[in-house]
């Protein structure tokens, strides 16, 4: 009942939310987190697939659920709500900028992963080239070219009196731009976050650097963890220890906190977490499979340590924990069957991710929600959780799912949009989902696929030719969403024109399709091609290094 009253107070306070923002010092003095200002822990895992856990997110327990051990995720699921249809973008940076800004990737235009200033990681595509996307990522300074600027989630929470703590992977802005530093984006504390989307190594004995295998390469060095250098400690554990210290400091100072616990795990480079690896070898897994499983369990141990620490400090009952991943499983790791595809792909395996929410006193324990949500929804959801429904942010595409957490169903379904006008292991595409229907538009050959996800989760049967009216309806919807978000389409090399929106496909555009499908003979493949005007040129075609397994550690291709 008390919480219901608090909920009413939330409604009453909506009109004075901005006044609350000015109460920073008062909140801090009054004794830390309260039901109005609960602590929030966002436990964010990198590249973790929907099935990379012992918690079943499908209607049945799969072989991967039986393979992996994530007892603390299972505990979190028992204490809270499991979302079976949570979505993210198919690659790191777009997801991370969406959760920081509430914008869909089509709108913020950080549509591929970022690293070096003004350098696109896109690989050569013989038919289309990417538009001028925001290759420099998120920036607090709008004068930095090819960036998106917005009031970020942590900056709003900070203004409201939260202590905002960043631990782990940032990957918000390109190296050499202000957006590479989380302290410039609303965080009070930054441990381990910078421009890079992966660690040089997970091992303390290697100083978490790639220098041991590639002398002089320091771009992947994890900042702020020098005290662990030379120790036999795994990066996941080092970051967890630092996070626990920051939680303790927040509780000591009686200030509500927002902990962005953003693990580098289970992203490449894949290296044994020796605490758990032997167990999976004994289970009969291959070395590669055991390495991956050990990294998953190490991540889960971190979750358990944080949950236990909150209990010990007496703040667990006033702390929300949200668990999520930023994209689907990497293609070098076991496919997340029954899903099709992998990281970077438009199919469910690229975009469907685990999501768990514990909110003591609000979310009923052991509940399951089958309605879909998407990563930009985190922004308005966290603000509503913190009693900050009004916020100085334009163009928020995300929708708060607090009502779902309170057990209410949505009265009508909304469409979801994905937009990837880039080429990196996967050619460019847009996707729209509404209800059970999902339309994929492949930009390169202007081909469409229609699936009924409710009946065909594995996307095995393209219905676009069978359900022509539905295909057209979804194509029109996708076009509307792309226009609403001011989405940029790739450029067709043969003509210099942008790829048409799906509802613009006409007989004349079909005439070009055979040419599009066969490539563009008029422009040879050139990995040093530049695009844009002469005043705004980006080199294309930079690819990530390939790692060799020459040291006894399990290393594979390092793809972001
Ligand atoms: Ca990722």
Automatic annotation (TrEMBL):
Gene3D superfamilies: 3.30.1120.10, Alkaline Phosphatase, subunit A. Its cofactor is Ca(2+). InterPro entries: Alkaline_phosphatase_core_sf, Sulfatase, Sulfatase_CS, Sulfatase_N. Residues 38-387 form the Sulfatase N-terminal domain. GO terms for molecular function: arylsulfatase activity; metal ion binding. Belongs to the sulfatase family. This is Sulfatase. It comes from Echinicola strongylocentroti.
């Amino acid at each position: 009942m008390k919480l219901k009253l608090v909920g009413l107070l939330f409604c009453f306070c909506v009109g004075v939310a901005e006044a609350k923002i000015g109460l920073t010092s008062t909140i801090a003095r009054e004794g830390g987190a309260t039901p109005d200002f609960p602590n929030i822990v966002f436990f964010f895992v990198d590249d973790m697939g929907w099935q990379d856990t012992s918690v079943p997110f499908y209607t049945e327990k799969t072989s991967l659920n039986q393979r992996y051990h994530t007892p603390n995720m299972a505990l979190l699921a028992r204490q809270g709500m499991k979302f079976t249809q949570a979505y993210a973008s198919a690659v790191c940076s777009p997801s991370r900028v969406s959760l920081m800004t509430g914008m869909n990737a089509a709108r913020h235009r950080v549509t591929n992963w970022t690293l070096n200033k003004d350098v696109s990681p896109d690989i050569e595509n013989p038919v289309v080239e990417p538009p001028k996307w925001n290759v420099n990522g998120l920036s607090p300074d709008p004068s930095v070219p090819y960036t998106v600027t917005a009031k970020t989630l942590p900056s709003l929470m900070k203004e409201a009196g939260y202590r905002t703590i960043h631990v782990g992977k940032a990957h918000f802005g390109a190296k050499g731009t202000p957006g590479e530093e989380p302290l410039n984006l609303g965080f009070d504390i930054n441990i381990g976050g910078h421009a890079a989307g992966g660690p040089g190594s997970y091992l303390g004995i290697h100083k978490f650097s790639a220098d041991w295998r590639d002398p002089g390469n320091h771009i992947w060095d994890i900042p702020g963890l020098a005290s662990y250098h030379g120790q036999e400690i795994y990066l996941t554990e080092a970051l967890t220890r630092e996070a626990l210290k920051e939680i303790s400091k927040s509780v000591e100072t009686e200030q509500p906190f927002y902990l962005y616990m953003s693990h580098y795990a289970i992203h490449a480079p894949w290296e044994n977490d020796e605490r758990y690896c032997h167990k999976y070898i004994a289970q009969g897994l291959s070395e590669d499979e055991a390495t991956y499983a050990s990294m998953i369990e190490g991540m889960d141990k971190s979750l358990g340590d944080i949950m236990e620490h909150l209990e010990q400090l007496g703040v667990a009952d006033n702390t929300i924990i949200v668990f999520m991943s930023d994209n689907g499983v990497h293609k070098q790791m076991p496919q997340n069957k029954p899903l099709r595809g992998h990281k970077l792909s438009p199919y469910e395996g690229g975009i469907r991710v685990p999501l768990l929410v514990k909110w003591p006193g609000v979310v009923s324990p052991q509940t399951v929600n089958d309605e879909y949500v998407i990563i930009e929804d985190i922004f308005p959801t966290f603000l509503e959780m913190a009693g900050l429904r009004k916020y100085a942010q334009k163009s928020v595409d995300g929708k708060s799912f607090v009502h779902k957490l309170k057990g209410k169903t949505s009265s009508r379904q909304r469409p979801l949009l994905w937009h990837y006008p880039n080429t990196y292991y996967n050619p460019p595409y847009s996707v729209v989902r509404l209800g059970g229907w999902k339309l994929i538009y492949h930009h390169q050959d202007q081909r469409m696929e229609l699936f009924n996800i409710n009946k065909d989760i594995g996307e095995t049967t393209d219905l676009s030719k069978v359900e022509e009216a539905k295909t057209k309806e979804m194509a029109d919807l996708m076009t509307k969403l792309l226009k609403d978000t001011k989405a940029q389409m790739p450029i067709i090399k043969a003509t210099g024109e942008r790829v048409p929106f799906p509802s613009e496909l006409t007989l004349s555009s079909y005439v070009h399709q055979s040419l599009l499908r066969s490539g563009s003979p008029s422009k040879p493949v050139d990995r040093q091609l530049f695009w844009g005007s002469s005043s705004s040129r980006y080199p294309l075609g930079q690819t990530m290094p390939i790692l060799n397994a020459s040291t006894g550690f399990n290393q594979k291709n390092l793809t972001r």
